[in-house]
Amino acid sequence: MLKIAVLLSGSGRTLDNFQQRIQAGRLNAEIQVVISNVGSALGLDKARRYGYPAFHAISSAATNAILADYELDLIVLAGYLKLYQPPEAMKQRVINIHPSLIPAFCGPGFYGHHVHEAVLARGCTVSGCTVHFADEIYDNGPIVLQRCVDISGCGTADAIADAVFAAECEAYPDAINVLDERGAEYFWTKS
Q: Which of 63, 79, 121, 139 is most buried by a 10 A CB count?
């Protein structure tokens, strides 16, 4: 079972998903701490209600100072809208989920609704999500898992976002479970 830290910036929908799956025995992880770069993030309130230590930290250095007090296997970015620089010991232990099939619609400026608007404008009939390791370049690290989503019936960016988020709710816990089984080294050595 992996000991994880969750970094978020917003409402904590992914944290909710993790909590439900942990409670149901479908996510092989224990959340040790939740940190947000936004002091008013609803996700921090949710974390406290779930009983997790929850902190506001505006920089990677401040975040890392908090994380130093916890024994962690993995840092999970859950809607964390800032480039995160982990401590040296965790450099290959940070994962993120991106709302497209990398390498499409990724990199600087491609996050959240911007991705779905670009997918719609291009006329794509499929989209999806990618769980990948995060490094110093946006959407660059080794891919852990991808899920494809049929969006041919989605006429708006909001509809695409809803369809992709439903896939993310399955893919992110599945990827964490794969990492629990295989270990992070497996993905770094094959890339």
A: 63
For residue 118, CA distances in Å to 64, 132, 151, 171 come to 34, 21, 13, 22
Residues labelled as active-site residues: 98
pLDDT tens figures, 87-111: 999 999 999 999 999 999 998 889 8
Q: What is the pLDDT of residue 191?
A: 54
Domain termination site, one of 91, 115, 137: 91
* Nearest alpha-carbon partner for 7 in 101, 52, 136: 52
Query: What residue has token string 């390498």?
Result: 103
Quote the CA–CA distance of 77 and 95 in Å, as a whole number.
Answer: 6
How many CB atoms lie under 10 A from the CB of residue 71?
A: 7
Predicted TM-score (pTM) of this structure? 0.94
The tally of domains found in the chain comes to 2
Domain that holds residue 83: 1-91
